[in-house]
Amino acid sequence: MIPPRAGGASPAAPRPEDRRPPALSVERLDVSYGPVRAVAGISFDVHASELVALIGPNGAGKSSALRAITRLVPIAGGDVRLFGSSIRQVPAHALPRRGLVLVPEGRHVFGELSVLDNLRLGAHTRGGRDMAEGLERAFGLFPILRERRRQAAGTLSGGEQQMLAIARAMMSQPKVLLLDEPSLGLAPVVVKQVFDLLRRLHASGVSMLLVEQNARMALAVADRAYVLQAGHIVASGPAAVLAADDAIRRHYLDVATAPAVAARSQPV
Ligand SMILES: Nc1ncnc2c1ncn2[C@@H]1O[C@H](COP(=O)(O)OP(=O)(O)OP(=O)(O)O)[C@@H](O)[C@H]1O
Ligand SMILES: [Mg+2]
């Protein structure tokens, strides 16, 4: 483990012109599974329209953090704020309406349903007109899904299913989008398409928290990043600064794309 750097574990200071509360603020978050403390009091922010990456090796606690933020596992300690308001008491199903949506690891599209019905499910909290506009927006971002709209989602390629999972999340017009390993298991050319898509979503202004083992690509699209190791944030800063840092490169960029990840990431 590399030593925490100066300012490493504290959230970045808000820009002077931006005194609004962060879009997402995680404060001393703890997540435990029985005796296993998966996340040990981490704090970080995602500001409006920011793309923040959370990187780190297998078992670091990245998915646990996302699951606790979206209330899929209990918050054992600390708090999570959305635009300044605590969501600690808000149940998971009510979060999309508040603007917070998770694209979980492993895509989870409804394989028997058509692409169109998967997208409609993503917008079930919204009315007819929003639905039509949402579909147009989704098809604008993902032209391939328009072509495949009548096809059963289970028959899409892995990359297309990932696009669909993200498009479905976008149907509820999230203000904060959390993504857990969107590139996992995809062939390199498809990984590039997914990251191109993340860039376009970022340009559209949605705030994003991106969990990735592909740290190199995550740092290439992110504004800022936090490095999680064994439940602790061990470094943070502007993504470009972290990407150029020798210790980060040695510990998380070169190693993070080596065998452990390759073994989990069979191209589809
Ligand atoms: N449901 C669970 N029950 C018990 N322990 C769990 C559970 N889920 C995760 N853990 C443990 O919590 C720790 C963090 O796991 P987590 O899945 O959050 O890591 P991660 O950073 O997402 O890893 P990966 O990169 O492999 O997805 C690991 O030690 C893991 O074994
Ligand atoms: Mg994970």
What do you see in this structure?
By secondary structure, the protein is an alpha/beta fold. The chain is 36% helix and 23% strand. The protein is built from eleven helices and ten strands. Helix 3 (115-122) runs parallel beside helix 6 (158-170). The longest helix is centred in the last third of the chain and has 16 residues, at 188-203. It is globular and about 45 Å long. The model is unreliable at 1-12 and 255-268 (pLDDT under 50). The site of magnesium ion has 3 residues, from helix 1.
| Bound ligand species | adenosine-5'-triphosphate, magnesium ion
Number of beta-strand segments: 10
Category from helices, strands and their pairing: alpha/beta
Distance N to C terminus: 33 Å
Strand order of the largest sheet: 6-7-8-3-9-10
Low-confidence stretches: 1-12, 255-268
**Whole-number mean pLDDT:** 87
Blueprint (SSEs and pairs):
Blueprint: E1 24-33, E2 36-46, E3 51-55, H1 62-69, E4 77-82, E5 85-86, H2 95-98, E6 100-103, H3 115-122, H4 128-141, H5 143-147, H6 158-170, E7 176-180, H7 188-203, E8 207-212, H8 215-221, E9 224-229, E10 232-238, H9 239-244, H10 246-254, H11 259-264
Helix pairs in contact: 3-6
The structure holds adenosine-5'-triphosphate (ATP) and magnesium ion.
Summarize this structure as a short list of keywords or feature phrases.
268 residues; globular; disordered N terminus; 11 helices; binds adenosine-5'-triphosphate; single chain; 6-stranded mixed beta sheet
